[in-house]
Amino acid sequence: MHTQTPGQQPGPYRRTAAWRRRTLPGVAAAPAAQGFREHLRLGRKGLAIGVDIGGTKVAAGVVDAEGRILARAKRSTPGDDPRAVEQVIVELVEELGAGHRVWSVGIGAAGWMDLDGGTVLFSPHLAWRNEPLRDNLQRLLRRPVLLTNDADAAAWAEWRFGAGQGQDRLVCITLGTGIGGAMVMDGRIERGRFGVAGEFGHQIIMPGGHRCECGNRGCWEQYASGNALGREARELAAANSPVAQELLKAVDGRVELITGVIVTELAKAGDATSRELLEDVGEWLGLGLANLAAALDPGKFVIGGGLCDAGELLVGPARKAFARNLTGRGFRPAADIALAALGPDAGLIGAADLSRVSSRMHS
After folding, report:
1. Are 321 and 358 in contact (CB under 8 A)?
2. In Å, how far are 8, 148, 150, 168, 298 from 186, measured between CA atoms?
3. Sheet of strand 129-131, all strands in order from the earlier edge strand to the far edge
4. Do the beta carbons of residue 305 and residue 343 sit within 8 Å?
5. Which residue, 83, 114, 160, 309, has most beta carbons within 10 Å?
6. What average pLDDT does this structure show over 270-283?
7. pLDDT, tens digit, for every residue of 13-65?
8. Looking at the predicted structure, is the pLDDT value of residue 11 above 50?
9. What is the DSSP string of 8-60?
């Protein structure tokens, strides 16, 4: 039995497909950099289907070797039934595969995967608990299937085709309801010793602070996420502050309807209070990035997710806070901070590309 090296991603490069056990001569023993170039060379041809499984919808697309989406399809997510989710994936792949010659399928989903990349250990939005999803789908689809975390898939897409191109140490942050993350280091997705690296949103940034769904207090995502932005805006509006009148007007006085999306739209329209709220969130974002830079020293941070619709209204304050809190500031190079380039398609594109590279390696 092969023993995984701690800290290395086994998924797209170290896993031999269940139906194929032959590796290419010389590649397995090649140095890491040479082997990686060979992986990408092998993965340059052919189409793949990427499937992005969310809490409410399953989106799929046919993706070419340049990261372009050639066709799309989607379904609602039957989140309470693992077999029903599998059936939805099969339907999407069959629909898209009918018009294209597809080599492989990549599945991206929120949750923790085992190091072998075959089992979903836990998914917060779906009824997957120790679910052998890869083997189930390979049996149903009769195609190579790669299973990966959705944040890992998005990071891979940004590294291959988006804002992270050319970086050998890339950290991606996804800002939405919470904060997700992933790392691409020296051409590999870094998943940690137990496969659960990248939970950046749960670094404790304010001891004794707001309670987080994870059970701790003061997690970063309680201060720098879309949920945090909405919560701060609701608290301000509930106090009937005179500076919150535009917020209240936008929801007809119903404070509970104020969300981060509404605050962002008002900020983009010029509302001073909404811009101030976004600036506060941006400062917390920059502080957390400075902590990550001290630990990981990446060359670039790529920031994506729904909250990034605010653009520079969010990232501008984050850059300033990052520079102000960076360990060794003024005496060391600092990582760039950029907005993601691929938007909500990143997970789908990354899952497809990872599956193509992996399956070509083992063909």
Report:
1. no
2. 11, 18, 20, 5, 11
3. 112-113, 120-122, 129-131
4. no
5. 160
6. 97
7. 333 333 333 332 222 333 344 445 445 554 456 899 999 988 788 999 999 99
8. no
9. ---HHHHPPPTT-----TTTTTS-HHHHHHHHHHHTTSSEEEEEEE-SSEEEE
